[in-house]
Amino acid sequence: VGMCMSIVLHPASGQAIKAFKLVQGLCGLRLVRILLEADLTWTASQNFHAFIGIVISINSLLMGFETDIDWAGWFWVEHVLLLIYCFEFLASLKRFGWYQISYKNPDIMWNALDCTIVCASVLDSWLLPFFTP
Question: 50: exposed, middle or buried (C-beta count within 10 Å: 0-12, 13-18, 19+)?
């Protein structure tokens, strides 16, 4: 393990760092499997919806702060918020299935917007960094 870590942390081994990040991403797939097998009926509660509303409100405020305050921690704040949004989207997708983004759903416009924003954010924040130098 120590030798592997020294290879990953060595500045000249950019490919090793990318491989290590890819392995971490695959561990994230394990979390998706756990999410799919879990009982998430509690995500239909008013408390959960209130929590998501508060997160969205806080995120709106933070976007304003982020433009005025130079802080390295914004990177981590954005990733935590994206994790919350991904969980909320995947939980609703698990609860309702593909009906969630079906044209038969009366909330299709809101759900399609939610899906677009979450997927674009995942692509921009988590997937594209693997392919850019």
Answer: exposed
Q: Is the pLDDT of residue 123 over 90?
A: yes
**pLDDT single digits (tens) 36-92:** 788 989 999 999 999 999 999 999 999 999 999 999 999 999 999 999 999 999 899
What is the gyration radius of the CA atoms in the chain, in angstroms? 18
Q: Are 55 and 84 a contacting pair, CB within 8 Å?
A: yes
Side-chain half-sphere exposure of 108, counting CA atoms within 13 A: 8
Rounded-to-integer distance, Cα 101 and Cα 114, Å: 10
DSSP state of 45: S
> Residue 72: how many CA atoms within 13 Å on its side-chain side?
0
The count of other CB atoms within 10 Å of the CB of residue 43 is 19
What span, in angstroms and rounded, lies between the C-alpha atoms of 101 and 82?
A: 20
CA distance 123 to 49: 25
- pLDDT, residue 16, reads 63
pLDDT of residue 2: 40
